[in-house]
Design goal:
about 50 residues; mainly alpha; 2 helices
Amino acid sequence: MNNEDVIIETKQERRERKLQKKKEQMQKHGKSTARIYIDALFKRLKHKKK
């Protein structure tokens, strides 16, 4: 095994690569789902005022 074949990777680089994979696997919410969350928030705020 040559030294050129071995790639030394720091802990930070491994961590960043792992987080990137995790981010790619996350489900992304559509705009309609975001709208539902916003509407629910406004409803909650409206009921607290009373």
